[in-house]
Automatic annotation (TrEMBL):
Family: Belongs to the glycosyltransferase 26 family. TagA/TarA subfamily.
The keyword rRNA-binding belongs to this UniProt entry's keyword annotation: no
Involved pathway(s): Cell wall biogenesis; teichoic acid biosynthesis
EC number(s) on file: 2.4.1.187
Name listed for the protein in its UniProt record: N-acetylglucosaminyldiphosphoundecaprenol N-acetyl-beta-D-mannosaminyltransferase
Naturally occurring in which organism (per UniProt): Lysinibacillus halotolerans
Lineage: Bacteria, Bacillati, Bacillota, Bacilli, Bacillales
Task performed by this protein: Catalyzes the conversion of GlcNAc-PP-undecaprenol into ManNAc-GlcNAc-PP-undecaprenol, the first committed lipid intermediate in the de novo synthesis of teichoic acid.
C-alpha cells in the first residue's frame, strides 16, 4: 500500500511486511529500487520534476523522516512508523543471512566498504558478502564488471542522495542484482567512522536534532521540516475545501 505526501508516493507498510515483499521480489527476479523519503527530499522534489519522477518511479519508498509520519497523521493517512534507511539495510542483511542471499557494498571512501563488510560478518556470521567496491573508481565498466562477476542478489550503494538513486537507475538493467538500496552514510556508521544518534533520539524520531546539535551548519537544511509541515497543512486544508 502507498500513500501520497505532497505528490510523492510513500509505502505505508512496516519493516516485517516490507522485508517479506523484498525477498519475494528476489525470488520473482523483479528489479527493485528502495528509496528513503524524508521532508527534505519531498520539498526538493516540489520544484524538480526529475527528482519527483526518480522518487515516484522507485518500487519501494520508505518513510525515513519523522516529518513524513506527522504529515500522514495531518492528512489522516496510514503511515504510522518510520522505516529508516540504515535500519532497513540492517534488516535486509539479517534476512539475507537467513535466506542465503548475497550482498555487495558499493561506495564510500577507500576502505570504508571493507570495514562495513567486516562489521556485517561479525553481526551476521552466515551472511554472504560477495564483494565491495569503494566509490572512487571512475571506470564504470570496471565497477559493473566487478559487481556482475560477484552475482549478488542485493546491492547497497553509498553515494548520498539522489546521486546514488540516479546511478542505480542509470545502470540497473546492466547489473546482476535484483534489489538495490541507496544507503547514504550507512557504511560509515557500520565502519564506525560516523556515530549514529543515541537510541533515545532514534526512538523519539529526533535523529535530525542530534545531527543538528553535532553539526550546527545543518540548520539551513533542517528548515525544510517546518516548511514541509506548513505545506502539508495547506494541502490538507485545500483538499478538505474541495470535498
Amino acid at each position: 500500500m502507498k500513500e501520497k505526501v505532497l505528490g510523492i508516493q510513500v509505502n505505508t507498510e512496516k519493516y516485517d511486511r516490507l522485508i517479506k515483499e523484498i525477498f519475494s521480489r528476489i525470488e520473482r527476479k523483479e528489479k527493485t529500487l528502495i528509496v528513503a523519503i524524508n521532508p527534505e527530499k519531498i520539498m526538493n522534489a516540489k520544484d524538480n520534476e526529475s527528482l519527483k519522477k526518480l522518487l515516484n518511479d522507485a518500487e519501494i519508498q520508505i518513510p525515513d523522516g519523522i516529518g513524513v509520519i506527522i504529515a500522514s497523521k495531518i492528512q489522516k493517512g496510514n503511515i504510522h512508523e518510520r522505516v529508516t534507511g540504515v535500519e532497513m539495510m540492517m534488516r535486509i542483511c539479517e534476512e539475507a543471512s537467513k535466506q542465503d542471499k548475497s550482498i555487495f557494498l558499493y561506495g564510500g571512501k577507500c576502505g570504508v566498504a571493507d570495514q562495513a563488510a567486516k562489521k556485517l560478518k561479525e553481526l551476521y556470521p552466515t551472511i554472504k558478502v560477495v564483494g565491495t567496491q569503494d566509490g572512487y573508481e571512475n571506470n564504470m565498466e570496471k565497477v559493473i564488471s566487478n559487481i556482475n562477476k560477484a552475482k549478488p542478489d542485493i546491492l547497497f550503494v553509498a553515494m548520498g542522495s539522489p546521486k546514488q538513486e540516479n546511478w542505480i537507475n542509470q545502470y540497473r538493467n546492466q547489473l546482476y542484482p535484483t534489489i538495490f538500496q541507496g544507503v547514504g552514510g550507512s557504511f560509515d556508521v557500520l565502519a564506525g567512522t560516523v556515530k549514529r544518534a543515541p537510541v533515545i533520539f532514534q526512538q523519539l524520531g529526533l535523529e535530525w536534532l542530534y545531527r543538528l546539535l553535532k553539526e550546527p551548519k545543518r540548520f539551513k537544511r533542517q528548515l525544510a521540516l517546518p516548511r514541509f509541515l506548513v505545506e502539508v497543512v495547506r494541502h490538507s486544508v485545500r483538499k478538505q475545501h474541495k470535498v
